[in-house]
């Protein structure tokens, strides 16, 4: 594999990829766990409606964070393709396509959140607005997990790319591959065995660990310009 010095654009792309990845991690976790989770209880329509109507700014901020995440995700997909395409163009292109599909699906699912919000805003003139809104919030959750199916495939491909490259230690590739399996299995539970999803939820800590580690390695490797990590 060529050294970083032989590809002066490589360190820059790694650095920018790390920055985008960091924004994605922060905004994604903030939207889903920090902002939205305290408001939405898929088992209680009235409590969810009351929580969202009491904190509309927080609900809107979660949507804004998801949009920022998606914008950065699209940029990251392109940068990772530029980084890995000289080594395995087909795999790099496949990874980019699956990541972009994930981004599109997750952005499209935001319309369900907006529909739920519009229903709650008109609860005084609509029958069963709270129940209908909760259905759309549940639809968003399913859409999010559908997006993660494609991201799980992306993570498996990225794990293979990182494993085969000489740019990163193989442990990072293994971590991304494990994250991909977690995403695929967890999303499958959402659709086919939802009652088991809460039991499996702690496994997502592995995805946060693997992706954060890879993000920091991109930042550090892009900053130092060294190849053997």
UniProtKB/TrEMBL annotation:
Keyword field: Membrane, Transmembrane, Transmembrane helix
Keyword Transmembrane helix part of the UniProt annotation: yes
The keyword Aminoacyl-tRNA synthetase is annotated on this UniProt entry: no
TM regions (residue ranges): 61-84, 96-121, 141-163, 175-193, 199-220
InterPro entries, A to Z: DUF4386
Pfam families: DUF4386
Entry protein name: DUF4386 domain-containing protein
């Amino acid at each position: 594999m060529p050294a970083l010095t032989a590809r002066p654009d490589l360190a820059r792309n790694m650095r920018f990829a790390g920055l985008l990845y960091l924004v994605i991690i922060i905004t994604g976790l903030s939207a889903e766990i920090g902002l939205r989770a305290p408001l939405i209880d898929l088992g209680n329509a009235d409590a969810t409606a009351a929580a969202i109507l009491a904190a509309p700014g927080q609900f809107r901020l979660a949507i804004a964070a998801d949009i920022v995440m998606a914008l950065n995700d699209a940029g990251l997909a392109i940068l990772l393709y530029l980084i890995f395409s000289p080594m395995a163009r087909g795999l790099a292109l496949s990874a980019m396509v699956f990541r972009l599909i994930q981004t599109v699906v997750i952005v499209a699912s935001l319309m369900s959140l907006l529909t739920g919000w519009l229903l709650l805003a008109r609860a005084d003139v609509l029958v069963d607005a709270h129940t209908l809104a909760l259905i759309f919030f549940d639809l968003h959750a399913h859409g999010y997990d559908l997006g993660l199916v494609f991201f799980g495939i992306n993570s498996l491909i990225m794990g293979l790319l990182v494993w085969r490259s000489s740019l990163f230690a193989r442990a990072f590739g293994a971590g991304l591959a494990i994250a991909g399996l977690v995403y695929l299995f967890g999303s499958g539970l959402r659709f086919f065995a939802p009652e088991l999803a809460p039991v499996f939820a702690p496994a997502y800590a592995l995805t946060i660990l693997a992706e954060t580690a890879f993000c920091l390695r991109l930042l550090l490797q892009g900053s130092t310009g060294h190849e053997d990590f």
